[in-house]
Amino acid sequence: MSTESEERPNPAAADDGIEEDDDPPLLSSQALEALREFLSEQSSLGGAGGGRVDGGDDDQDEVRLVAEDWRLSQFWYDRETAETVAEEIRTLYRSTSSPIACIACPTLYAYLKKLDPSVPVKLLEYDKRFEQYGDDFIYYDYNQPEELLPSLKHNYQVIIADPPYLSKECLEKVAHTISLLAHPQDSYLLLLTGEVQKERAAELLNVHPCGFRPQHTNKLGNEFRLFTNYDPAGRLGGWEREV
């Protein structure tokens, strides 16, 4: 059902023979401001429905992504979160020289490649709009956690994952994919998911919450956390110690 009122001709005006004013209608100050905001928002969109992820007005720092698709449970990180986690990933890359696997976190992929285009990264993602990243894009459906190219298996010492749903099943299947991607030697894992997954994540992946709190451009109702399977010490706020 439409919530908009239907426009109907005014019979009284027609009967009275009143001539319509040729002057263009004037918008109220509130309507003009709303129009300016709309046009400003539209001008910031990149490509077909794309948007930028930034936290300020510095266009040099912006990273453009396609628009969030909430049907796929997509919520992009804000710029501070993306830059902080991307810098941590680059630090781990420098110490391991390992290629990077990003599972369902295109924001981090985009910021990492902007930070250092030379870092080898694969984005495992369901949304085929990200095929724009070329060979770095690998189609991934968490419902088929074992459907991976042979070249990917046990090839990554640095893995970042953001399971799309806060369900036990989703986390378990993504955890299985992580186990197939992880290098037999020491691997570094960063998991971004809801606080409600804390105990289950610890059980499945031996990860602990960090002091750094991820944020999204659109505020989420669920408390979001960053977990790692290594102690980042002075980075990412360190492991959060239970009192």
From TrEMBL:
Family under the similarity heading: Belongs to the class I-like SAM-binding methyltransferase superfamily. EFM5 family.
Broad EC category: transferase
InterPro entries: DNA_methylase_N6_adenine_CS, Efm5/EEF1AKMT1, Mlase_EEF1AKMT1/ZCCHC4
One MF annotation (Gene Ontology) recorded for this entry: protein-lysine N-methyltransferase activity
Pfam families: N6-adenineMlase
Record protein name field: Protein-lysine N-methyltransferase
Species of the source: Musa acuminata subsp. malaccensis (Wild banana)
Transmembrane regions: none
Stretch list, region Disordered: 1-26
Chief place where the protein resides: cytoplasm
The keyword Metal-binding belongs to this UniProt entry's keyword annotation: no
Compartments in which it is found: Cytoplasm
EC number from the UniProt entry: 2.1.1.-
Domain of life of the organism encoding this protein: Eukaryota
Function, in words: S-adenosyl-L-methionine-dependent protein-lysine N-methyltransferase that methylates elongation factor 1-alpha.
Keywords: Cytoplasm, Methyltransferase, Transferase
One biological process term in Gene Ontology: methylation
Gene Ontology cellular component annotations, sorted alphabetically: cytoplasm
